[in-house]
Amino acid sequence: MNAIGNPLILLVEDEPAQMELLRYNFEKAGFRTISASDGEEGMLLAREEGPDLVVLDWMLPELSGIEVCRQLKRGGETRRIPVIMLTARGEETDKIRGLDTGADDYVVKPYSVNELLARARALLRRTSPVGMGETLIHGDLTLDPEQHKVLRNGKNVKLGPTEFRLLSVFMERPGRVWSREQLLDLVWGQEMEIDYRTVDVHVGRLRKALRLDGLPDPIRTVRAAGYSLDYDG
Ligand code: CA
After folding, report:
1. Which of 25, 39, 67, 150 is the Cys-Cys partner for 157 at CB 3.0 to 4.6 Å?
2. pLDDT tens digits, one per residue of 38-52
3. Which residues of 5-32 are buried (b: 16+ CB within 10 A; e: fewer)?
């Protein structure tokens, strides 16, 4: 997940003209894109780049779209990535609906670009509200990504950029336990070589900033696992 910045869309489609159409329209709509022309490459990019959404063509050479979808949803970090399947009219629509492929939505070709974008936005809003610029509210905490502002109990909380990103991750999925490794990937990015203790330092700063006026600490340390926003406010 890219907690901050424009959502990253992985496009998997083997027909160059279709791919170009997808890329053009998603980028024009303000998304970042990466692309794969077959299922194997699609799986690889999904694992390595952690896109916010996958647009996946059903008809692909070698590994079919349906099989890619099953593998993405089978487990690991790719399971949380929402998938929109593209299918030809009449072709396999019923199967997609009926089979337990794990696809989150599907669009029938020839599709309307606006409809595809609308569905992509709807899925992203559900899975990555901060990436869509939406305000998050949890208990007495409010985080506004567009204004880069955090309120607790109506009072302004001053956070550095790293603490802000950390809180965004926590607030997108309250109650979920994040390992230090996951937080490093999401907040600092995989390319950075940073010690796990750095995560502890910034979580400590975030906690301190959030405990204004003696309010309780909303973050729970989970032994041998990591951290979680675990708090009813
Ligand atoms: Ca195709």
Report:
1. 150
2. 999 999 999 998 899
3. ebbbbbbbbbeeeebebbbeebeeeebe
Report how far ligand 1's centroid is from the alpha carbon of 55 (Å).
12
Beta strand extents in the chain (DSSP E only)? 8-12, 32-36, 53-57, 83-88, 105-109, 136-138, 141-144, 149-152, 155-157, 177-178, 219-222, 226-229
Q: How far is the CA of 56 from the centre of ligand 1 (A)?
A: 9
Please report the domains of the chain, with CATH numbers, ordered by start residue: 8-127 (3.40.50.2300), 136-229 (1.10.10.10)
Instruction: Provide the token pair at 49.
Output: 């780049």
Q: For residue range 214-232, what is the model confidence (pLDDT) as tens digits?
A: 999 999 999 989 999 987 6
- 176: tokens are 């979920």
Written as six digits, the tokens of 105 are: 């939505």
How many angstroms separate the alpha carbon of residue 99 from the centre of ligand 1? 20
Q: Is the pTM of this model over 0.70?
A: no
* CA 4 to ligand 1 center in whole angstroms: 31
C-alpha 209 to ligand 1 mean position (Å): 51
Strand partners, 143: 136, 150
Ligand 1 centroid to Cα of residue 52, in Å, is 22
